[in-house]
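Quick start: what a row looks like.
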Amino acid sequence: MKDIHASDIDIQKFAFDQQECQPEVIKHILSCEECNERVQSYLALSSFIKDQAEPTLDYNLSHLVLGQLPSTKEAETSYPYLINFIMLAIVSCLALVLFLFRGTIGYLLSSTQAYQNYFIISIIAFISTALVLDQFRAFYQKVNLLTP
């Protein structure tokens, strides 16, 4: 009988996958009666667990869980429609102003330098507003894709 026995990990490896064991451990377990008994107890416990029947529930758990989940229809809002409407209104107003005052705007832009600067600044502000609204709309669509 040897004084140092194999560890539980080595015994489990020997019991369930001998290819993973080191040769010294295999020799020891085959020659040691106490370690061999522990291997047999692991194998008996494993076969007992495998022979147990699968547990079954007496009730349908899916109906209980699905009834408590929030509906995805409630989460829908009209943000995309609002953003599209605001962008359409801004473009329409700008087009209407340019159409109605095309002669006056042409005269103002050709006569003084200050009006040209104001016109350029207003165009930059319009484009920036449109880009911000478009980014918000795209972000909202991506968030809706992530929400179940």
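That is the whole record. DSSP finds seven helices and no strands in the chain. The longest helix spans residues 113-146.
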